[in-house]
């Protein structure tokens, strides 16, 4: 799953560690989500959307499916 978390975080001037503290997760979790190595749980995805005051679908985008 692709996402815009890195760009949103940069717009706010937040480090990965600060965002992790706000979401009560590890910095490594934020890094893994940003790089696409980990898809957040639904509650975490909603928490991220609330924090950035954005709809889920503007933050998270499914990968292109291959036919």
UniProtKB/TrEMBL annotation:
Question: What UniProt keywords are attached to this protein's entry?
Answer: DNA-binding
Per the database record, which ranges form the HTH cro/C1-type domain?
A: 5-59
Alphabetized PROSITE patterns for the sequence: HTH_CROC1
Q: Which InterPro entries match?
A: Cro/C1-type_HTH (IPR001387), Lambda_DNA-bd_dom_sf (IPR010982)
Q: Which SMART domains match?
A: HTH_XRE
Recorded superkingdom: Bacteria
- What's the name of the protein? Helix-turn-helix domain-containing protein
